[in-house]
């Protein structure tokens, strides 16, 4: 139960919600809900890359700025970014001005386009890596998993950048490939019910 906090509404939530007021809404409406939308999947894996070495609160507070800067994470548009766009982004105080991460996002847009051509969609690819629920015996006790290691390795082989096992595991948690809501969190059983009727992409 040490991974649980009681919110102002009396509901039990994952303890990380206590770190910032805006986390409650993110937790209650996004984190852990299964996602099949390619744009959202691309956005999240890119933002997780930007988070590397930083806090999610920093990234979440700048998310709308990131969306504006990166064409709402439409990878078909981001792939067209050039040196002029990189220079523009490096001057954008609303995002994380890290050349390597900016260039990785543009690179990953190209890799995403290639993946859609080969696999049909990003969702079809990523959901192939949905782990067996027994892989995570106790929620929120792992920062990587055997599946996140395998997915990271495969993404790197395909040319993606800033997709280490920890980054990929955080992506899997957020996009619902695993239900890592803490035991006792009011959302854990709700997510389980959603997962039972969720249609995995082919």
Automatic annotation (TrEMBL):
It comes from the Bacteria. It comes from Thalassospira povalilytica. This is DNA-3-methyladenine glycosylase I.
């Amino acid at each position: 139960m040490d991974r649980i906090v009681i919110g102002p509404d009396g509901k039990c939530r994952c303890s990380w919600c206590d770190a910032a007021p805006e986390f409650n809404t993110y937790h209650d409406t996004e984190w852990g809900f299964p996602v099949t939308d390619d744009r959202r999947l691309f956005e999240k894996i890119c933002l997780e890359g930007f988070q590397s070495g930083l806090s999610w609160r920093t990234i979440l507070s700048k998310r709308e700025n990131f969306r504006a800067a990166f064409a709402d994470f439409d990878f078909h548009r981001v792939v067209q970014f050039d040196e002029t766009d990189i220079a523009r982004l490096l001057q954008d105080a609303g995002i994380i001005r890290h050349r390597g991460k900016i260039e990785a996002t543009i690179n990953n847009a190209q890799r995403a386009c290639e993946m859609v051509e080969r696999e049909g969609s990003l969702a079809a690819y990523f959901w192939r890596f949905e782990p067996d629920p027994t892989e995570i015996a106790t929620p929120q006790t792992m920062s990587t998993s055997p599946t996140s290691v395998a997915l990271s390795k495969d993404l790197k082989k395909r040319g993606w950048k800033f997709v280490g096992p920890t980054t990929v595991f955080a992506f899997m948690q957020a996009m619902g490939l695993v239900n890592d809501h803490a035991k006792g969190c009011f959302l854990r059983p709700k997510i389980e019910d959603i997962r039972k009727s969720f249609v995995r992409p082919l």
